[in-house]
Automatic annotation (TrEMBL):
Residues 33-52 bind DNA. Keywords: DNA-binding, Repressor, Transcription, Transcription regulation. Pfam families: TetR_C_6, TetR_N. Residues 10-70 form the HTH tetR-type domain. The lineage of its organism: Bacteria, Bacillati, Actinomycetota, Actinomycetes, Streptosporangiales. PANTHER family: HTH-TYPE TRANSCRIPTIONAL REGULATOR BETI, HTH-TYPE TRANSCRIPTIONAL REGULATOR RUTR. This is HTH tetR-type domain-containing protein. One of its GO terms (molecular function) is transcription cis-regulatory region binding.
Length: 205
């Protein structure tokens, strides 16, 4: 028997994750059985457990993939050596969430992940690790702004970064419950952070 290619394994893993997202978004984590996920993916238990030993592992993978995408979007902002503003950072994240949400209800799933992380040590650990990466990037950018005198220095940069992340979490809640879009948050945040010498950008179309 010829060995299974890495591309085939990756495709099967993605197939299973897609099925899990569909089921979880439709019925929630607790109301969805592993068998329902397998049926949606059209996979046998033996094949599926090769990738994810439990439903909890599936949930953790979904959460980690979302935060990985968010981290990539943030890091892309400064690839040219520039320093993104607070509004740019939040917009990069909300735009990523909006894009992923259109594909597989990411905002709704992430809110469920937050609740699940309170009872699952595995999920809480993975979430904290991925969250720390986002927080570290935002803190570094805020420190740069403080060094340039664009943000007050009497508040620790990490505290400001947490507030910016909180805005993203608020966006995800409003995205789920009120169908909020990125343009609304971008315009509001730009008006809030605009200070002397930095006028608000024109409203989004």
């Amino acid at each position: 028997m010829s060995p299974v290619s890495s591309a085939h394994l990756a495709a099967r893993r993605a197939q299973l994750l897609k099925a899990a997202r569909t089921c979880f978004a439709r019925n929630g984590f607790h109301a969805t059985s592993m068998q329902e996920v397998l049926s949606e993916a059209r996979m046998s238990p033996g094949g599926a457990y090769r990738y994810f030993p439990s439903k909890e592992a599936l949930v953790a993978a979904i959460a980690t993939e979302t935060l990985t995408e968010v981290s990539a979007a943030l890091k892309a902002l400064s690839e040219d050596g520039s320093t993104p503003g607070p509004d740019d950072m939040v917009t990069a994240v909300t735009s990523t969430v909006e894009r992923l949400d259109a594909l597989h209800d990411t905002a709704k799933l992430e809110i469920q992940v937050w609740a699940e992380a309170q009872r699952s040590p595995l999920l809480a650990e993975q979430f904290a690790r991925a969250f720390a990466d986002v927080e570290r990037f935002m803190t570094e950018q805020v420190e740069t702004y403080q060094g340039r005198g664009l943000i007050e220095r009497d508040v620790p940069a990490g505290h400001i970064a947490r507030v910016l992340i909180g805005l993203v979490h608020g966006f995800m809640v409003q995205r789920t419950l009120l169908q909020a879009d990125t343009a609304l948050f971008r315009d509001g945040l730009r008006a809030l952070v605009a200070g002397p010498g930095r006028a608000p950008a024109p409203p989004s179309e």
